[in-house]
Specification:
The C terminus is likely disordered. The protein starts with 6 loop residues before the first strand and ends in an 18-residue tail after the last helix. The chain has 183 residues and is an alpha/beta fold. Helix content is 30%, strand content 17%. It has one domain: 3-Layer(aba) Sandwich (Uracil-DNA Glycosylase, subunit E). Strands 3-2-6-7 form a four-stranded parallel β-sheet.
């Protein structure tokens, strides 16, 4: 079968030494690649779910502020694929996927407690992430393509995992842009 679609490069990890829970998507969609930011599609519910759990209006924050908040709460973000060929944004269109070094990143995160896969395509890598000996969760996809789950049902699943591994709500310190940190 011939590969279709352009070869696409993913985004760098959002994680640092304080990351406790690493959320793994599959690969950024068209809107996220264009914006060079995770979960940029306006109908993706990732940021809305975090906002509901943390009591923060995420829509009122800039992308760097969202990342700073996620980091301050111990949440890391990455994808299971570093590159792939794909037309459009659907996971089922991913071809010739090249995996990210999930184990390498996890080894550089000293406080990492758990990993959570955002959706089914990401969860295909659970065999790899389970090798770390940490809890691994399969969460419902926050993508607009996952219309079978209501926002409330997704929120309940995500809230449970976030509560298990992230500290209770802390005062917000979002004024300044976050420094660039790489693990």
């Amino acid at each position: 079968m011939a590969e279709t679609g352009p070869r696409l490069e993913g985004l760098p990890p959002v994680a640092d030494a304080d990351t406790r829970l690493l959320v793994l998507g599959s690969f950024p969609g068209v809107a996220s690649l264009k914006a060079q930011g995770y979960y940029a599609h306006p109908r993706n519910q990732f940021w809305a779910i975090l906002g509901a759990v943390w009591g923060v209006d995420m829509a009122g924050l800039t992308y760097p502020q969202r990342l700073a908040l996620a980091r301050s709460r111990g949440l890391g973000i990455w994808d299971v694929y570093a590159a792939c060929r794909r037309e459009g944004s659907l996971d089922r269109a991913i071809e010739a996927a090249e995996p990210n070094d999930l184990l390498g990143l996890a080894r550089r995160l000293p406080r990492l407690e758990a990993l959570a896969h955002n959706g089914g395509e990401s969860a295909r890598s659970m065999r790899i992430t389970r090798a770390l000996g940490l809890p691994v969760y399969r969460l419902p996809s926050t993508s607009p393509a996952n219309a079978g789950w209501s926002f409330e049902r997704k929120l309940a699943a995500w809230a449970d995992v976030l509560a298990r591994h992230l500290p209770p709500t802390q005062p917000l310190t979002i004024g300044a842009e976050p420094p660039t940190r790489t693990p």
